[in-house]
Amino acid sequence: MLSIQRFFWMCAGTPIEIIEKYPTEHNKFIGIGATIFFTALFAGLSGGYALYYVFAGAPFAIFFAVVFGVLWGLAIFNLDRYIVSSINKTAKGLRQFYQASPRLIFAVLIAIVIARPLELKIFDKEIKDVLKSRYLHEQQERVSRVSAAFAEKYALELGQIERLQKEYDSLSKELTRLREELKKEVFGDKTSTTSGIVGFGTYAREKQAVIDSKQEREKYLASQLVKLETYINRQKELEGINTQMMLSDSLMNAKVSYAGFADRNWALGHLTSSGNEVNNSSAHAVLFITLLFVAFECAPILVKLLSDAGPSDVDIHESEARIIRWLTATSPLSKNRFVRAYRAIGGKPGRRLTRRPLYNKRVRKAGAAGLHGGE
User: Fold this and answer.
1) Greatest CA separation found in the chain?
2) Measuring CA to CA, how many Å separate 261 from each of 39, 70, 72, 252, 347?
3) Per-run averaged pLDDT (10 residues), the chain, 375 residues
């Protein structure tokens, strides 16, 4: 427990030697350090998850995700630690909030960056459904465009097939009707198109001749249709039209699983932007998750701002002030030793003035006395 306590003190950004001197400050810095640590942990998980989908399908996707997650987490840890440790608690009034305002803005940006990949993971199932609908729609459009382009290119052949097919269908229906009439003619059924004479007589032979001629035409149409359809199918194979098919469920699931970060981010945006009740609830959930991470990221800064100046803060301030005074103090060995002793009244602090040596003053006096004596 002591090791964990010291670790969280280190995360807080305040020197451990100073924290140890004031027992009343121990719990405060444990809370600040733990918040910074877990924020960096979430940042690492979020960054690794985001990069995993960037390299989805690559052999070393997991390795890259782990390395980037560790680096991203360490970077966020260092930034949060610096932000919290750089707040001056000895400042009075709103000056602390003015000092911390850029840091708060930066903390909000970090929280939004951290929250987005985790939101993608939370809404993973809904995102997959949206991506399936999108990929299915895109596949249908692709098949339609390819089919339309092929139909435009081979419009003549396809037009011939359509005309021949219509004639073939019409001729098949007519042959069916003529065979029924021939059957009735042979059996002697009296109708408006039969004579009612039993046997294969003159009328039956005429009908058989008509049927034979139409059967020849039907065979010709069938042979022409086979040739044209064979040609069209061969062209479809050469131009890859037959491969433009709808994806099966297994292929669609595989494509969704390897979807990149941009597609998943678009799916989440689409999921939260539509106007129905389900999507509105998803949008509210995403907003609350983002606000939660914003509050979590800003918590160390707010705790530092809202808490009173403790003994450790006063100790750090006094130590820094003492060191600064010692470094800037004038001394006989300091090159700035004339700054305070020979500063003109009303002059700017730090202004360096030259001092005329005493030797030159005595020489001038002696020279002036010699001139008067000579006269």
Assistant:
1) 178
2) 22, 19, 17, 17, 63
3) 86 84 85 86 83 74 87 87 77 71 80 80 83 84 80 85 90 88 77 72 80 89 90 80 65 76 81 68 81 80 75 80 76 48 46 48 52 48
Q: Are 69 and 45 in contact (CB under 8 A)?
A: yes
- Could you give the 3-state DSSP secondary structure of residue 351? coil
* Cα–Cα distance measured from residue 102 to residue 121, given in angstroms and rounded to the nearest whole number: 30
Distance CA 83, CA 93 (A): 19
DSSP 24: G
Which burial class, exposed, middle or buried, applies to 131 when counting CB atoms under 10 A from its CB (0-12, 13-18, 19+)? Answer: buried
- For residues 23 and 122, give the distance between their C-alpha atoms in angstroms, rounded to a whole number: 41
> For 250-255, which contacts have Cβ atoms below 8 Å and span 24 or more sequence positions?
252/132, 252/135, 252/136, 255/135
Q: Which of 148, 129, 212 is nearest to 178 (CA)?
A: 212
Contacts (Cβ under 8 Å, ≥6 apart) of 128: 256
Query: 116: helix, coil or strand?
Result: helix
Q: Which of 3, 71, 81, 7 is nearest to 39 (CA)?
A: 81
Cα distances (angstroms) measured from residue 296 to each of 27, 37, 216, 309, 333 = 18, 11, 86, 22, 52
CA distance 61 to 48: 10
pTM for the model: 0.53
